[in-house]
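Feature request, filed as a ticket because there's no other form

It would be nice if the structure record came with a short human-readable summary line next to the tokens. Right now we just get the raw output. Example of a typical job, pasted below so the devs can see what we mean:
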Amino acid sequence: MEQQPTITPDDSPDQQLARLLGDIARLEKVVAGWSSEQQGAVRAYRQSLDDLNKEAFRRLIAALQGEPAAMAALRRAVEEPLLYGVLRQHGLLKASLQERVELALDSIRPMLASHGGNVELVAVIPPDAAEVRFSGNCNGCPASMQTFEAGVKAAIREHCPEISEIRQVRGLSAQANGTDALRFVSPFAQAATADWCFAATLDEIPEGGILARRVSSEPVVLSKQGQLVSCFQDSCAHMGMPISDGPVRDGKIACPHHGFEYLLASGECLTAPEVQLRMHAVRVAGERVEVRLTS
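Raw output as currently delivered:
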């Protein structure tokens, strides 16, 4: 089968990356249908290319180490998610503080999920602070403070002893001490960070309104209220019918089918407090809004 070019000169960098990742995903599906011998040959070929690229990057970094200005430029460059991810994949960079905080939160997420809750990293604020936010049943739960102290704080301090201040917040933190919070996640990270998916740009989400989208084939609703961006499944907790066509007013959305009303900030149901919308974790990286779907 002839391979058609998937990248055009008019594509934006984000479009180019999305197309490249799509090509890789399609090739992985093809290889998955091959025999074990064929798959072994592909893995060996891929490993050889990875080793060659790693050595090339290693030599480049070694050549730059004697030039302070070049190393400063390289440190700035690796803040770009794609470059950071590739160098991390090759083991040429240590895991970032943000990545290690995410791994810490991953260690307690199964416990939270067993109670219908979750926790997301809002921001890592240099040099030693982190902000997290509860979602689902953990949001506003009477035991949330105990969970925060004994679960979240303990996990972060175990994985990241350099983090001395851990705060629980309800919105997104934009700045601290004049320094932008770090919000990027490597698209090549091997742990939970690999699950973040692009959903929209900030300006696509109307202030005080909603935006209905499909993320990895899942229908979701995005909402923006000031610095707070939230995402939940486009499915009413009452009978599972879509709610994205419902009226939005004063930070609330009503199901167009049976009138169940929800807070857009938390997914809390005002009609029947015992149920709520299924929330998804949200991350804002520059103008990109990324979500991690809750299974």
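Something like this underneath would help us a lot:
The two ends are 36 Å apart (CA to CA).
DSSP finds six helices and 14 strands in the chain.
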